[in-house]
Structures are given as structure tokens and as C-alpha cells.
Design goal:
The complex is a heterodimer of chains A (277) and B (430). By secondary structure, chain A is mostly helical. Chain A has a domain of 177 residues: Orthogonal Bundle (MetI-like fold), CATH 1.10.3720.10. Chain A contains 14 helices and no strands. In chain A, helix 4 packs across helix 10, helix 8 packs across helix 9 and helix 12 packs antiparallel against helix 13. The longest helix of chain A is centred in the N-terminal third of the chain and has 36 residues. The radius of gyration of chain A is 23 Å and the shape is globular. In chain A, 36% of the residues are buried. With 430 residues, chain B is an alpha/beta fold. Chain B has two domains: 173 residues, D-Maltodextrin-Binding Protein, domain 2; 202 residues, D-Maltodextrin-Binding Protein, domain 2. Chain B is built from 17 helices and ten strands. In chain B, strands 1, 2, 3, 6, 7, 8, 9 and 10 form an eight-stranded mixed sheet that branches. In chain B, strands 4-5 form a two-stranded antiparallel ribbon. In chain B, a hairpin with a 2-residue loop joins strand 4 and strand 5. Classes of the chains: A mainly alpha (277), B alpha/beta (430). Chains A and B meet through helix 4, helix 6, helix 7 and helix 12 of A and helix 1, strand 1, helix 2, strand 2 and helix 4 of B. Chain A: Its main location: membrane.
């Protein structure tokens, strides 16, 4: 009995301490980036100024004056929001069909969709550049929205499929008995029941779209360039511009961190594939 | 209802996106630039150009590797995505020969003869200039004069490698966080590949023979790489295989390096006032261990705005531009682009603030990119052939493996030789 009590007391202290240590380790890079963004480029690399320094906003001023931050931010919002909506519009009916009307091929289709994520992006970079230029789509919002949607579609369908599978088929069939057509089933039954799962999936999809850097850097010039490209452009081979780079990175990840903070409950649910019942 | 609203929002956003793209543009140039202090300054100085000419300038700043990738794919496909591109000395003669970039001819006022001869040669093909330098560099020895004096050593111009090693040994004090020699070790043809190639040049080694067969298995290469590995392992900072320009600059500014051999541009970033400069060492032959590089502006053949682009380059690489930066309230004479024009080094205001100017000019003037009997190809720390980046990257990986002790120098050079041989054969050189 005493051993059990001791064990419980130990667990009560050890686990939270461990959780805090792990959380701080994960949070430190973000904290360091934000801190560095308020240092001059010269101070940013000096260990003696790690925590004690004179804060400056010059990096943020430079970001908006010299790099047109708001144009990149606007493009990020347009492409990430549009791609998320488009992905859901395609993924919800797909996942619905596979969850409630499966065929013998459903499992294989799901696996095939997932396997497309295994293709290294670099393998199709040059064909993509040639084709999109020939089609006049290079550096357009439309292209980036399509690319972001397609690369996220497999994982979104998988997530939604998992949520929908938790909804008893009987409920859907009861709707059918009441005279609902397919669209009615999706609108009146499926979406209200799976709303938590859809919301968390949408949030994750939005985060993936916002953070995507390989294609958004390589398929844009100016008109559709997103914040990823702004960060990429601030890396310098000859020159220690860590203060400036940190400011740009902070401003780029800031919106997504705030969004994630407010929606962390849904995010955890989405990441753990929680049940919707 | 919610889904319907979402669909409406998606449609509206898509239309907004398409509309944004379809906006008409006035006379506008899109310029792909490397993120370099001089280019960032140019964006501000060029506001006057836009005011004067009405030409709007769209700057696309990119990391060096991504810039190469984007510009290469755009230029090779005649894409015309960019009107002006930043390219280096490795690309300029190759792309000029391939017709991917336009030849540059400027008016008399431009004074093309004022461009440093080594830069002109490195950016030309068959005597035609294909890219105009906005900033150029060589390499030299930068060392802590206070540490050298305290240790009783000196480093002379074009000193022998043995003396440089002895100086590094004398300044080496790891217990107090000072390492004798900080040198590039990070893998990459422009990182450790560039520095090791200059060491090899000075040991009498060359990448290829007259038939373009790789020579990495020669005794000269073996001696050069063994010297480099021994110097850095004996007197370099720990983890040197991860260090390139920026990492060493940070170490140097934390007073952790006795000497550093690297790009002359580094001199303008050094904060410790006890710095002295010397021309790069050699190993007893006339070829020094200094390099030659320029970031330059070129006009891709696919652009529809070639004339406007050339006019901008003529302004941005002119003597007037140097004056504009020097007299600009935000910048001044310490920020003018160097390694570009001979006349810049004659400006008294520049001489007053640039302690390194004389050493930099001497280093650039002594670099010889042209083909010679010893080195039958164009380029100093690289070879101006399209296959070199691939060969140099493989070489850089092997050298980092040798430096970290994962491989012997002999094995690393043998592997690099095999990779180079395979790439050159596949490319049809022999």
C-alpha cells in the first residue's frame, strides 16, 4: 500500500516535470527566434547578448520597408485559405463515399492515395516548371492553390475517412429512409455529426498549406509568392543577418502559432484521430 | 448552409486571386537577386532610378542555391520570368556560350575598361562581356595581429603554407577558446570545395588535364588535401566540417580564431580592430591560394524587356552608382560595392574607411581565371563547365568525410576521382 502511495506521489511530480521539460525543449527554438528578432544582426551572434541586450524594432521595420511583407502575407492567406476550402470540397464527398459505400477497391484506393505522398517532390520539379509555364500558370494563385490542394488531399481524405467510419451507418440509412438524397445526407447528417473532425482536419490542412515551402518557393516569382519565399530570400551565404531572418520568420509563423494556440483542443483531437461519437 | 457559404468564399477568393494576377503592369523589370548586403542596399538606392526613368523594379530575393535552381530552369527554358538575374562567375561564360544570356555592350561613359581585368575576363566568353559585376571578391589571410604579436609570429604576403601553419600553431590556445586556423569545412562546391581547390592550386594540382580527365588521384592533390586536413584537425575549431563563411565569421567575431583564409568581403564584417591582412599563401610555386568570384547582373535571352534591363544594369554597375551609394544618407563609403571597378579604389573617402581595400585589390589582380598550361580550363576555385557543380558537390562530401575522420584522405580522393571520372565520361568529354 505504501509502495503504491509512493509510486503515485512520484508520478504526480515526475510526469508533469518531464512534460514541462519536453515542452520547454520544443518551445525553445521559437522563443530563441522571437528573442533574436529584437536584436541587431551584430548582437544576434554574440553569446554574451543571449538574454541581455537592447531590444530594437529595426528588423521589423526593415521587413516591411525593404521586403514588402504584406504582399507575401496576403498571398499566403489567399492560397492557404483557398486550398483548404478546395481540398475539403473534394475530400468530404470522397471520404463519404469510401466510408459508407465501400467497394472491394476502397482499401487499395486509400493506399494508393497515401502512396502518392511517397513521391519525392524533386523528381517532378522540372516537368512541373515546364508544364506550368507552357500553360501560362507559373506564378499564379490558381497554380499554388491547386498544388497545395493536391499535395494535401491524400492525408485529408484519410483523416476524414477515419472520422466518418466512426459514425454508425445506421444513422445515414435512417436519413435515407426519411427521404434524404445523398447531398441531404452529407449536409444534414454527416457534416453536423463530424463537424469536430472536419474542423480539426481543416485546421491541419491550413497549417500544412501555410508552411509549405518546396513548391511555393519554386513555382512563384512575385505575384503569388508566399511567406515561405520571403523567408527563403532572407538567407544569406555571406553575411550574418540572423536578426533580420528571425524577424521575418517570426512574422511568418506568428499567425499560425496564434491560430494553433486558439484551436489546440481541435488540433489535438485531429492529431489523435479522436472519435466523433 | 455553412458549406454553401464556404463554397462561395472559395469562389470569391479564386476570382480575387485570378484578378490579382491579371492586373496590368506598367514598364516593370523583375530582378532575381542573391540576398547579399550590396544587393539589398541597391533596392533602396534604385528608388532614384525609378523616379528618374519611370521603370518600376520588382526585386525577388532568393537564397543562393534556390536562386541558381530557379534562374537555371527559367533561363534554360527561355522562360522570361526574370528580366535581370544575378549570376556568378561559374555560370556567366557557360551561359554566354550557350546563348542563354544576352551580350552586354554599354556606352562610352560606362568605361568598361575600368572594370577590373580579372572580373572582365571571368565574366566574358570569347572576349564578349555577358554579365556586369556588381560586387567581386578574392580571398586572403585575415588574422589577429594582437595574438600574432603576442606569440611572436608574422604572416607575410604569399607566405609559405609551412609558415602559416606555424603561425596557427603559435596562436592556437583552445583552453582559452582560441583556435589557430578557421577554414571552410562544410561540404559544397562553393564551400569547402572552393577553399580546398585554392590550396590544391597552390600545391600545383589541377582538377583536369588537357583532355579534361580528372586528376584528383595525383600526388599534388594528395599533398594539398593532407595538408588541409592536418592543419584543420590540429589547429581548427571542433566541428569544422560544419563550418563555412557565416559560421566562421561568427567564430571570428567572438574572438575564437587566430587566422582565417576566406573571401575578401569578410573584411568588411570583422569587428575586432586588431586585424591584419596578407595575400594568400603558396607552396613554392607561382600560383597563389587565392580565388576569384563575382556576383554579376545578366539579361536572360528570353526577356521581352532586354533594352530596359541592359539600361538598368548599365546604371547599377556604373561609377555613378558607386557615388550614389557613397553619398547616400543611409549607407556611405563603407557600403560601396568593391571588387568591381578600379576607380572605386582611387576614391579618397573609400580609402579612408576601407582598411582592407589595398589587400583586396592586390588579391583580385593576382587571380588568374584564364586557362594555363598548369590548369587547362577557365576558373580558379571552380571549373567553368556545366558539370562542375555536380562534381564539386561530390568532392565536397568526400573532403568533409576526410576531415571528420570517417575516411582517409586517400580513400576520399579516390572516391572523388571515381565520381568525377564517371560524370565526365557520361557527359561525353572522353
Amino acid at each position: 500500500m505504501a509502495i503504491v502511495a509512493q509510486h503515485t506521489k512520484f508520478s504526480k511530480i515526475a510526469w508533469p516535470v518531464l512534460a514541462w521539460v519536453v515542452a520547454l525543449i520544443f518551445f525553445f527554438p521559437i522563443f530563441y527566434m522571437v528573442l533574436t528578432s529584437f536584436k541587431t544582426d551584430a548582437d544576434a551572434v554574440k553569446p554574451e547578448f543571449l538574454f541581455s541586450f537592447t531590444p530594437t524594432l529595426e528588423n521589423y521595420a526593415n521587413m516591411t520597408e525593404n521586403y514588402d511583407y504584406w504582399r507575401f502575407a496576403r498571398n499566403s492567406v489567399i492560397t492557404a485559405v483557398s486550398a483548404t476550402i478546395f481540398t475539403l470540397v473534394v475530400a468530404v464527398p470522397c471520404a463519404y463515399a469510401m466510408a459508407f459505400n465501400p467497394t472491394r477497391a476502397t482499401k487499395d484506393i486509400l493506399m494508393w492515395m497515401l502512396s502518392t505522398k511517397m513521391l519525392p517532390a524533386a523528381a517532378v520539379l522540372y516537368p512541373m516548371i515546364f508544364m506550368t509555364k507552357a500553360a501560362g500558370l507559373y506564378d499564379t494563385h490558381f497554380l499554388i492553390i491547386m498544388v497545395l490542394s493536391l499535395i494535401n488531399l491524400p492525408i485529408v481524405i484519410w483523416m476524414l475517412f477515419t472520422y466518418f467510419k466512426d459514425i454508425p451507418k445506421d444513422i445515414i440509412e435512417a436519413g435515407k429512409m426519411d427521404g434524404l438524397n445523398t447531398w441531404g445526407e452529407v449536409r444534414e447528417i454527416l457534416i453536423p455529426l463530424a463537424w469536430g473532425g472536419i474542423a480539426s482536419t481543416a485546421l491541419l490542412c491550413f497549417i500544412f498549406c501555410w508552411n509549405e515551402a518546396y513548391w511555393t518557393v519554386r513555382l512563384t516569382t512575385t505575384d503569388a509568392a508566399t511567406l515561405s519565399k520571403l523567408i527563403e530570400g532572407n538567407r544569406a551565404p555571406e553575411g550574418l543577418f540572423f536578426g533580420r531572418l528571425s524577424a521575418v520568420s517570426t512574422a511568418a509563423v506568428g499567425p499560425i502559432v496564434v491560430l494553433g494556440w486558439f484551436c489546440q483542443k481541435q488540433l489535438v483531437q485531429g492529431l489523435t484521430f479522436g472519435a466523433v461519437k | 448552409m455553412k458549406l454553401r457559404n464556404a463554397l462561395r468564399a472559395a469562389t470569391a477568393l479564386s476570382l480575387l486571386a485570378t484578378g490579382a494576377y491579371a492586373d496590368g503592369h506598367a514598364k516593370e523589370l523583375t530582378i532575381a537577386i542573391v540576398n547579399n548586403g550590396h544587393m539589398i542596399n541597391m533596392q533602396k538606392v534604385a528608388e532614384a532610378y525609378t523616379e528618374e526613368t519611370g521603370v518600376a523594379l520588382n526585386w525577388v530575393s532568393l537564397e543562393e542555391g534556390v536562386l541558381r535552381e530557379q534562374v537555371t530552369s527559367d533561363t534554360a527554358t527561355g522562360g522570361g520570368q526574370y528580366d535581370i538575374i544575378n549570376i556568378g562567375m561559374q555560370e556567366a561564360p557557360i551561359w554566354g556560350a550557350a546563348g542563354w544570356i544576352e551580350p552586354l555592350e554599354f556606352g562610352d561613359d560606362y568605361d568598361v575598361e575600368d572594370i577590373l581585368p580579372a572580373m572582365r575576363a571571368g565574366l566574358s566568353h570569347d572576349g564578349t562581356l555577358y554579365a556586369a559585376p556588381f560586387y567581386g571578391e578574392s580571398s586572403m589571410v585575415m588574422y589577429r595581429k594582437d595574438l600574432a604579436d603576442a606569440a611572436g609570429v608574422t604572416i607575410a604576403d604569399n607566405d609559405s603554407w609551412d609558415n602559416v601553419k606555424a603561425a596557427a600553431a603559435a596562436m592556437h590556445d583552445p583552453d582559452n577558446g582560441v583556435y589557430g586556423a578557421c577554414l571552410r569545412g562544410k561540404p559544397g562546391w562553393g564551400d569547402n570545395g572552393a577553399f580546398i581547390t585554392t590550396v590544391a592550386n597552390s600545391f600545383g594540382a589541377a582538377w583536369f588535364d588537357a583532355d579534361m580527365k580528372p586528376q584528383l588521384d595525383s600526388p599534388e592533390w594528395n599533398a594539398a588535401v593532407n595538408f588541409y586536413v592536418d592543419l584543420l584537425n590540429s589547429y581548427g575549431p571542433p566541428g569544422s566540417e560544419g563550418n563555412s563563411f557565416n559560421e566562421i565569421l561568427a567564430l571570428y567575431n567572438q574572438d575564437k580564431c587566430g587566422l582565417w583564409i576566406d573571401a575578401t568581403i569578410a573584411a568588411s564584417f570583422l569587428e575586432n580592430p586588431n586585424v591584419a591582412y596578407a595575400q594568400s599563401p603558396n607552396a613554392g610555386n607561382p600560383v597563389g591560394a587565392n580565388w576569384l568570384w563575382a556576383w554579376a547582373m545578366a539579361v536572360p535571352a528570353g526577356t521581352a524587356n532586354a533594352e530596359e534591363a541592359k539600361a538598368f544594369i548599365e546604371w547599377a554597375t556604373s561609377k555613378d552608382y558607386v557615388q550614389a551609394v557613397g553619398n547616400h544618407p543611409d549607407f556611405g563609403w563603407g557600403s560601396v560595392p568593391t571588387g568591381q571597378r578600379a576607380s572605386t579604389y582611387q576614391i579618397p573617402e573609400f580609402q579612408a574607411v576601407a582598411k582592407f581595400a589595398e589587400a583586396e585589390l592586390a588579391a583580385i589582380d593576382s587571380a588568374a581565371p584564364e586557362a594555363t598550361d598548369l590548369k587547362p580550363y577557365v576558373g580558379v576555385q571552380f571549373v567553368a563547365i556545366p558539370e562542375f557543380p555536380e562534381i564539386g558537390s561530390a568532392f565536397g562530401q568526400e573532403m568533409a568525410a576526410a576531415l571528420s575522420g570517417a575516411k582517409s584522405v586517400e580513400d576520399a580522393l579516390a572516391a572523388a576521382q571515381a565520381a568525377a571520372d564517371s560524370i565526365m565520361k557520361e557527359a561525353g568529354y572522353y
